[in-house]
Amino acid sequence: MLLTLDNFDGAGARDYTSALDAESVLEIDRRLNQPSELRAALIAATSQFVVPAAGARAIVSRADGTKLFTGYLTEAPAYEYLGWGERGPAYRYQLRALTDEFLLDRRQLPARAPFVARPAGEILRQLANDLLPGAFNTTAIQDLDALPAFVSDFERPFSEHAADLALRARAAYRAHNGALVFASLGATSHSLSESDAGFSPDSLKLRAPARVVNDLTVTGRVEPRAHVKDYFLGDGFTLDFSLSDIPFTRRTATFFEEEYKGSALGGTRWTSADPAAAISVSGGKLLIAGGSGSDGQTRVVFVEKVELGGGMLLQHGEAAFTAASDGVLGGLYNGSVAIANCFAGFRITPSSSQSAIRALVNGVATGSTITTVAGHRYGLSTHLYATEIYRTRQTFHSSAHPAGSGRGGAAVAADVRVVLEVHDIDPASPGSPGFVSTVLYDAVVAAAPGYCAYALVNSASLHCNLAFTRLLRISDAEVRSQIPTQSWRTRLVGLQSEGAECLILDTPELLFHSQYPPVANEAIEVRYRSRGRALVRITDPASIAALTSGSDDGVRSAVRRVATPAPRTTADSEAAALALLDDSIQPAWIGEYTAWSDSLLSAAGDIFPGDAIAISASSRDASFTAIVREVQIALAASLGDRERYRIQFSNEAAAPLAFAFDPAHLREPLDLTATTSTAGTEFIADLPNAEVTTITSTTVTIDAGAAPPAGGGIEVRRSDFGWGQQNDRNLVGRFTTRTFTVTRLSRVADFSLRQYDASTPPKYSRYSTALHVDYPL
After folding, report:
1. Residues 184, 168: contact at Cβ < 8 Å?
2. Do residues 268 and 130 make contact, with C-beta atoms less than 8 angstroms apart?
3. Which of 24, 218, 244, 502 is deepest in the core (most CB within 10 A)?
4. pLDDT digits (tens, 9 = 90+) for 559-571
């Protein structure tokens, strides 16, 4: 065994093996998804002894070169006075070191937008590169599953981010010998059998705690539920309107705000391709002076994808054109950056000596044209309102569904309303910043992609500059209105200081700002999702039947409030519950084994937390595979290359490895009907596009937004409960056509819709569409 320390004093690595305290044992503690720790004690043996310095590089290795530990002293050694020796006072020096991620942990992560739809391993590589570019070998980092979103927090160290990524991907990470390793749990496997020649029965300790759960309730976050549409009529002076439900709204957030400071684009925010050297940053502006002449060759692209879910606002900046231009500004691309792939953006084309601006939707220029004027600035903004808040389900793992084959993770289809607007600002007209923007496009795009690349610039030959760029999450509620004889228009929800026209309050209310009151007979439509707790109760009938005996009905119940990965919807909660049941219905095992290294090591080599270990002990009725949770290594110089290993392991029935739970109690009732492990298959599609088309004093005409299923229909109720063929208490009717008319009995009328199919019993939509009418009779 060899201990070397490099104090970075120019002398290189020194051999401290002879200085190890003979009365102490050098210990290495390896913990799953945490930095490993080295503890050792030194005594000055010679006059050449150099006290180790804080930050010294520490390496513990065998004679064959195998490194058991590599890391850095976290602090200067602690001095323990031993008395007076031949050379003066004698001390024992207590050392503590952590593995190589110590270098990353002591640096602050840069501020960056949340990672979106990126594999966990790719995120880990990016974080390491942000902190110390090229310092670590990252070839052993596997990508594993993509995460819908991951937020890096500059207040947390790198190792905590790595542990979080490992949890979400059911993986193990470690930093060792200048390399980062990130792999699925159990990627390396060992075996331990009582038939092995060197097996020590006394060293194996096993416990089988009774932890079977086969009736599981999982609770997650507050989720978006019913698709709600409220209809009001303006009277010329009323500013506030009572909503029919509390809207699901996420906190508004600024994902990034680019002011173009400095002399180059920020590497944590943008990537660029510029073969013609046409793009530069100067004076707080992004300058574009030409391009390669080809579509998609000269571009500035945001490093993350943009999720087309809920409400989003992209303010591409105020563009000042200096010559006739050709290209796309503020483009969202479903694929590579090319006009044919542009889901939404602003198409810029030459118009004599000026430029023409048009909406670009699904690769086609559409709508009216604005021709630029020399000296004017043009604020370009894109508003997005999706029928779904999240475009991908969370993925959950278990021993039966490891990384790469988790439960959940499906894409969520949605339509997206796209609003493209241009604000013409004339520096010679002081009032122009307050003028109403020109809407180039305002329509719903069906079956929109879930994620798009955002290319601020796609320049064939653009000649302009941009003063700022922002990406914001705005209210998930959509407000539109129509003045008689005019077209519907989208009203911006938010603060008045940001140019918005109204607010959505939790009271719940729609409140128009004073200078934007709805005029008499102006129709108002508010679209949002109601809110409720994501929760589900799922049972495993086979496990219950196997445990049934006499008066014991076999049910083993539990409630889990999952914190990570966060179940954002009931569908997520179902996937989480099924993943937990994969393991919780199995027998739980916890154990440890202690042995000398020369009788323990197998062809798989050294043992690290996250490795799988197959236990075979027929005399104890134990045959299972577990995951190593902790490895403690004790060694002394006098023992040569023999180390004492203490391995702690358990399977996921004893302690899940891909979940973190919130211990807080849920202050909500859990009156749930249990479903079986086929959960999620008993629902058909919602009716998010159902809407009221005509309102009279006595009737309401409804378009369900989709034709009813063959043999099924559209069920309409006056409130959102009682669904099914046996309950007619609040039933309005069942309809077999897409469009139908129902009776309106009062000023305020509510109708809830779900579709059902021809199954026996019929399958219904998971969530209702709630239509609320508040019109004078």
Report:
1. no
2. yes
3. 218
4. 999 999 999 999 9
Question: Rounded distance, CA 412 to CA 453, Å?
Answer: 18
Closest CA to 192 of 495, 604, 482, 706: 604
The burial of 701, by beta-carbon neighbours within 10 Å (0-12 exposed, 13-18 middle, 19 or more buried), is given as middle
Task: Read off the pLDDT band of 48 (50, 70, 90).
Answer: confident
* CATH 2.60.40.10 is right for the domain spanning 683-774: yes
Residue 602, amino acid:
S
Residues 6+ apart with CB under 8 A from 678: none
State both tokens at 399: 């021993």
Main-chain phi, psi angles of 199, to 5 degrees: -70, 135
Contacts of 518 by beta carbon, 8 Å cutoff, 6+ apart: 232, 234, 235, 236, 238, 481, 512, 524
- What's residue 333's pLDDT? 98
Amino acid present at 512 = F
Which of 114, 101, 108, 112 has its CA nearest to residue 173?
Answer: 101
**Proportion of the chain above pLDDT 90, given as a percent:** 85
Q: What's the CATH number for 189-212+587-650?
A: 2.40.30.150
Backbone dihedral angles phi then psi of residue 264, each to the nearest 5 degrees:
-155, 160
Looking up tokens 């979106």, which residue turns up? 116
Question: If pLDDT is split at 50, 70 and 90, which confidence band does 635 have?
Answer: confident
Whether the pLDDT of residue 603 is over 80: the answer is no
Cα–Cα distance measured from residue 648 to residue 613, given in angstroms and rounded to the nearest whole number? 10
The continuous run of DSSP H or E covering 573 comes out as helix 570-584
The model's pTM is 0.94
What is 251-395+406-474's CATH number, 1.10.10.10, 3.30.530.20, 2.60.120.200, 3.40.190.100? 2.60.120.200
